Amino acid sequence: MLKVLNIVGARPNFMKIAPIVEAMRRRARRFQPLVVHTGQHYDAQMSDAFFRDLGLPEPDVYLGVGSGSHAVQTAKVMIEFEPVVLEQKPDWVLVVGDVNSTIACALVCSKLGIKVAHVEAGLRSRDRTMPEEINRILTDQISDLLLTPSGDGDENLKAEGIDEHKIRFVGNVMIDSLFNQLKRAEEVSKIREKLSVDGKDYAVLTLHRPSNVDDKETFSRLLDAIENINERLPVIFPVHPRTHGRISEFGFEERAKKLMLIEPLGYLDFMRLYSGARLVLTDSGGIQEETTALGIPCLTLRENTERPITVTMGTNKIVGTDTEKIEREAFNALSESREKTPAQIPPLWDGKTAERICDALLEYGKQNSL
Ligand code: UD1
Questions:
Q1: What confidence category does residue 367 fall into, taking pLDDT thresholds of 50, 70 and 90?
Q2: Does ligand 1 lie within 6 Å of residue 100's CB atom?
Q3: pLDDT over 70 for what percent of the chain?
Q4: I need a surface site. Which of 55, 104, 164, 244 has the fewest CB within 10 A?
Q5: Taking the chain, what is the end-to-end CA distance rounded to the nearest angstrom?
Q6: pLDDT tens track for 11-38
Q7: Domains in the chain, please, with CATH?
Q8: Average pLDDT score over residue span 138-163
Q9: pTM of the prediction?
Q10: Per-residue pLDDT band at 117 (split at 50, 70, 90)
């Protein structure tokens, strides 16, 4: 029986952990899964709504670290998590993605000699000004099992000198959640009706990267483009708390009001919203993948992506932050028919990744007599 502490911290972690915990629960004779929530995200809409929508069990342990500078937040997670590991003595700690909670928990375990599995390993934007890129590189270096979502992940890890035996290509676990919940989202969410956009053309925008919203000029350039796109079709903008703060700080309230500004949405409402959109504009990582899986055109408002397969196989285009380029690409996408050749879904984005993750943990145990 493998005791596994599954770590969640921030919004993009919940939909990755949910199917893994569910798969472990289905194999109750082999796994004892516990959920540890670091509390990096704590607002009802950034955290609780996801537990509810995804059917995630209440966390077994809540560390309550909250917000802070990178150093403060990372250090707080480490300080709170170490005694939990010492008390629980897990066989594995499973971390996902690239947030501060991911590196903090991995680092605690690597010093205590506890095995770490990293889900979504090997992604690289090659942009070290992104805090997430630092988290990815370091987490991969100290993890024992590297579970990759796409072939580029395997290649990146090997190029960084990581032993091939630690790497397993398992596919994209976020797509498990997407496929598990899509039908339910259709049934229970009334978000399109609430916003009066059901059956109409609309775009969805999300923005929260510090490089986009913490810099007044960049944020302003993005808003210029979005305002023009909004003349063509309504742009719905669920606003992340960081972005909300910047809108007031930079005095952008009047400009933002032209768009359809709403609170951050839960998992099911957001899924129902983007799945009906004509176009998605985002600087998120996960949304690039979700739109690819559903064949929705996506413009990524960044200069790079750690998820190149969404561009080579999927519906994603990297358009940066230049006003004219964004407008041009948006109008191009809008002029293409909805039925345009559907993009391909990348290999192993098939809804069965959580099962392969469980298999990989068991197999590692056999090979290393755990
Ligand atoms: C974090 C992740 C990022 C991920 C994003 C998704 C890191 C380095 N960044 O960024 O990779 O894409 O989550 O949302 O881990 N706040 C609230 N309520 C909350 C959480 C945050 O009001 O529940 C506010 C606080 O003012 C905080 C700010 O948002 O200072 C930023 O939160 P933080 O967790 O530092 O980073 P994110 O920008 O959310």
A1: confident
A2: yes
A3: 98
A4: 164
A5: 10
A6: 999 999 999 999 999 999 999 999 999 9
A7: 2-171+349-368 (3.40.50.2000), 182-335 (3.40.50.2000)
A8: 98
A9: 0.96
A10: very high
What are all long-range contacts of 252-260, with beta carbons under 8 Å and residues at least 24 apart? 252/219, 252/220, 252/223, 255/223, 255/227, 256/223, 258/227, 258/230, 259/205, 259/226, 259/227, 259/230, 259/234, 259/235, 260/195, 260/234, 260/235, 260/236
Between the CA of 344 and the centroid of ligand 1 the distance, in Å, is 32
Is residue 305 scored above 90 in pLDDT?
yes
Q: Can you tell me whether residue 214 is helix, strand or coil?
A: coil
Q: For strand 92-96 and strand 61-62, is the pairing parallel, antiparallel, or unpaired?
A: unpaired
Say yes or no: CB of residue 99 within 6 Å of ligand 1.
Answer: yes
* Per-residue pLDDT, 137: 98
DSSP β-bridge partners for residue 93: 5, 116
Q: What is the mean pLDDT of residues 344-361?
A: 97
The tokens for 127 are: 């942009």
Written as one letter, the residue type at 58 is: E
Joined together, the tokens standing for residue 9 give 């911290």
Inter-CA distances, 194 with 50, 101, 312, Å: 20, 35, 35
217 backbone dihedrals φ, ψ, rounded to 5° = -65, -45
Distance of CA 72 to the CA centre of its chain: 22
Give me the pLDDT at residue 340, please. 63
pLDDT tens-place string over residues 220-236: 999 999 999 999 999 99
Q: Is the pLDDT of residue 252 over 70?
A: yes
Alpha helices in the chain (DSSP H): 11-26, 49-54, 70-88, 100-112, 131-142, 151-159, 173-188, 191-194, 210-213, 216-232, 241-249, 253-257, 267-275, 286-294, 309-312, 323-335, 353-367
Determine which residue's CA is closest to atom 15 belonging to ligand 1: 99
User: If you compute the radius of gyration of the chain from its CA atoms, what whole number of angstroms results?
Assistant: 20
Which of 73, 98, 99 to mutate to test ligand 1, by most ligand atoms within 8 A of the CB atom? 99
3-state SS string for 50-92: HHHHHCCCCCCEECCCCCCCHHHHHHHHHHHHHHHHHHHCCCE
Residue with CA at minimum distance from ligand 1 atom 37: 242
